[in-house]
Design brief:
- By secondary structure, the protein is of the alpha/beta class.
- The protein folds into two domains: 225 residues, Spore Coat Polysaccharide Biosynthesis Protein SpsA, Chain A, CATH 3.90.550.10; 54 residues, no CATH class.
- The protein has nine helices and eleven strands.
- It is globular and about 55 Å long.
Length: 289
């Protein structure tokens, strides 16, 4: 491979975040990298910024800018970069990531010295320095039922994010895989129901099913302005996209036959209603404060 790592940033309607992300990579990365920025049909001045950036780019690290005509969603948008990858590893970054010094180098170095791993993720922090919960267990029907009975939809709080260790499913806001593996997988699943959510869960499942492990490297730190893109969606839309992704994931990996699908859809309806009520109650409580 020509580069140590190919870094893929999917940009959409937030020029300031993209610029900050690119600058942090440029300032804090020592290894040889190929930067690929895919603009996902932005309607602000992000494409103009990227064209100017490419025009003025210098050095042995290279920049490729790809401008999609429309918003293809997270999975398909990232997959546009697959044919351009020239690095030994591929690091997918959300546009709202700020890379801390040497974080990318640490990820590459760790993967170089450890066999049997198909993915690695850094520690993510909020802008105020707090550690962001980012690692979860891969969902199974049994785990989902158990979580709902406990009225707990997120098991990331059970993971010690201060310690480097194996993990099952890190958020794809920042995740690195061997390029040969991501090409073998075919990138993210572009099924329409994975348009925004669960495509990262599916990717971790693909890594797991091929017999590889995933590692969380707490020493490699990146700042994440959590949900900068998804916050633009109203709660009902966000819940709809989330449940479509959930249905697709379980239908793909666990469900067989009409009875299984019926139970899956019934569970999704109950889940949607429960989470919608929770959002409404939260809104009411905010108004009362």
């Amino acid at each position: 491979m020509k580069y140590d790592v190919s870094i893929v940033i999917l940009a959409w309607n937030n020029r300031s975040d993209v610029e900050q992300c690119v600058n942090s990579i440029f300032a804090g990365t020592q290894c040889l990298y190929q930067l690929i920025v895919v603009d996902n049909g932005s309607t602000d001045d992000t494409p103009k910024y990227l064209e100017e950036l490419q025009k003025n780019w210098k050095g042995e690290n290279t920049l490729t800018v790809i401008l999609n005509e429309s918003n293809l969603g997270y999975a398909a948008g990232n997959n546009v970069a697959l044919d351009s990858l020239e690095g030994k590893y591929t690091l997918f970054l959300n546009q709202d990531i700020v890379v801390q010094d040497n974080a990318i180098d640490q990820l590459v170095s760790w993967m170089e010295s450890h066999q049997g791993y198909g993915a690695i993720a850094p520690q993510l922090r909020y802008s105020d320095g707090r550690i962001q919960p980012s690692c979860r267990k891969l969902p199974t029907p049994g785990k989902m039922v158990k979580n709902y009975l406990k009225l707990s939809w997120d098991d990331s709080q059970q993971f010690d994010h201060t310690q480097s260790q194996d993990c099952e499913q890190p958020m794809a806001s920042a995740i690195m895989l061997p390029t040969e593996l991501i090409k073998e997988i075919g990138g993210f699943d572009v099924h329409p129901d994975y348009w925004l959510f669960f495509n990262d869960v599916d990717l971790s499942k693909q890594v797991f099913e091929r017999g590889y492990k995933t590692y969380f490297l707490a020493e490699a730190v990146m700042e994440h302005h959590h949900g900068a893109s998804t916050k633009k969606l109203v709660n009902t839309k966000r819940l709809t996209y989330w449940h479509k992704g959930m249905i697709r994931y379980f239908d793909k990996w666990y469900v067989s036959g009409p009875l299984g699908r019926l139970l899956l859809y019934m569970g999704a309806v109950i889940s949607f209603c429960a989470l919608w009520v929770r959002e409404v109650l939260r809104g009411v409580l905010k108004l009362r404060r």
